[in-house]
Structure formats: C-alpha cells, structure tokens
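Appendix B.2, paired examples.
Example (i):
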Amino acid sequence: MASKKKIFDSVQMVREIRDAYYRIKSDPNYDRREFEKIKKKWAHLLEQQEKIKAKKTIPTKRTESK
C-alpha cells in the first residue's frame, strides 16, 4: 500500500509555533517577524493540503436509469 504524501503535519506545526512563542516571551532579541513567517508557512501548507483533499472528494454526477 502506498503511503499518502502529507503536506501538513499538525504535530510539527504545534512544535514550531510553541517554540517560537516561547522564544518571543523569553528572548528579548527574538524577531517577532520570524513568528509571523512560521504562521504564514503553516497556513500556506494547510491550504495546499485542503486543496488536495477537495480535489479528491469532488462528487461525480451519477445518473440513475429508470
């Protein structure tokens, strides 16, 4: 069985955002724009994953014969 290619990994996303959030709170030199880049990256990956799912689940018209 072939494995699906997973674009969006929620566990990795949570780790990256949590680490960045911690650095914002603890490191005064941490650039807040870096946190915004991380959020944008994951939002983009989630959007791509949703597009792939939407393409796979498009219902096809089936005509019933009477």
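Example (ii):
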Amino acid sequence: MLLSLRLLWHIASATGSLHPSSLRKCQSSITHCPDNTTIASATNPIGQTSHPTDSSRNAVTITWAAANHDNTGQSLDNVYTSVLVVSPTFEASLTGSGPSGSAVPEDTPFGNRDFRVYHVDFRNLWSEFSDGPAHALSFSRANGGFYYCGFYSYQDTVYIGKLANAYFFHSVLAGQTDFIYGFGTAWIQSSALQLRGCGGGITAWKGSNTTFENRYGVYIVDSQVRAANASLAARINGACALGRPWNSQHRSIFARSFEDGSIDPAGTGDVTTVMDAKAFAPYREPAGVFQGPEGRFGDVSWIDWETVRA
C-alpha cells in the first residue's frame, strides 16, 4: 500500500482474528480515502478498544513473505519486501544501495503528516533467519506514530526513509541484522527491541548531508533490549552490536534503556560515545530531533500525546 494523503489509520485490537479476506478490505478502505488533506479513519471489522493493551498480544496481524531477491536469485529493491509501505510516491519509497541510497526527485512532495496505527502486528514471514532485507515497515517522507504495535522480521525489519519522522510507543521491534535502519528520524519510546540473533548491528543508520543542521537518527529511550528467548540469550551472549554505521552521519542513541547480556560490551566498537547530560541535552525529547522537510525543529503535534500520557 502506497499512501500519499494525510491519513489517520486507526486499526485497533480486539478479540477474535482477522480473516485474510479482511486484509483486502483494509486496503480497499484506504484506497477510497480522498487524495487531499482530509483526515480519514479505517477501523478494522472486528472491533476496537479505547484502552492500552499488551502489544505482544495484538489480535490483528498483517503478514507478507518477501525478501529482496526472488526464487531465481534476482535482486529487488527492499521496498518490494515490505508488509506496510507509507510514502508519497513509489520513487520516494525506494531504499537503493550504498551510503546515500536511491535519489529522490526534487519535486517530490511530503506525504502523510499525521499517520497513525494502533494495536497491529506486521510480520514478514520470508524466513526464520537473516536471509536478506525483509521489511515489516517502509516509511518515507511522512510523519507517523505507531502505538502498541509489533514489527517482526530478521533483516532490515524497519526502514525509516528520507525526511521521515516515526514515533514508536510501547511497541515491539524484532530482528537479527540491521533491523532498524534508514535515513530519517525514529524515536522508540518505552518499547522492546527483541533480538532474534546477532548480525551487523541492531541499528544501521545512514544519515544525510543537508544545508541545515540535522539530527536524523534513531533514538531508543526508556526501552528494553533483550534476546527473544532464554535459549537464544545463552547463544548470543556478548555478541550483538548496538549499531553499524553506514556512513559518517550515522547517529543511534540509547538512553535510559535496559540492555541484557546479549550486547557486546563495546557497544558499536570504536565509534561508541558515552554521553553526559550536557551532550545528550539536544536529543532529550522528540521536539529536539524531529524536523520538517526544510529542517525546522519542534513540530510534534502529530504524536498522540493523549495515548502516550495515559
């Protein structure tokens, strides 16, 4: 699904299960939303809840099974692997390759300015181990919040593309290799990073050169980083790197978060910096890192603060 309008997508969990035929209805409801700045809402057919629930027990799961190569070995762009794609255009959603990725045409508009999902799991079922990029989420040139959601894959689970601002709250992000990566900005608040193995790093940010100051990167705050289960924890003890820089603009900050014994004591090796309060001050809250397309800081009105503060 490629979304170019300002869409409020509210899919809430409830008892029961989502029949595969209903997935087409979700897409159909999105397709029929007006292509303008009108706020639209698509609610799942099995009901909704107005109170927080355990994101590890969501009743709604959307699945896809794809990696960036087909059965013949032919390579594809990572976007084709995604369970959910949010982007104003197809070209803007392309990951590309190398430290700067795919070039986005200069006349590309900014897309969704207030995209939201509640209580939904997105699972890429391509493999049960790292076998090439396999997105659960591709999110580019948009503002969006994910509340009590789950994102599951093994490699490149969550991609935050250029100019994107993504806020995750009480969510699960699971993977093995570079499973949170991109060019934009992600703030992961009070969530669980679930290690399904070790490879590359947990984060693999590329960053971007801009004519203005930017704070593109991934910020993991008040969260937990743990092995997916006890038997895996014993096998990967001390083996997982916090990050793997893809260029000199890489920025990944772990703040006030618990890390179990799976994490390499060196963090990200010789590029790790332990920040004091003064150094961390510019990054201490979402308003200090989320930026508009022209670089202006401070607009976090699209975050559902009522849910966050509940």
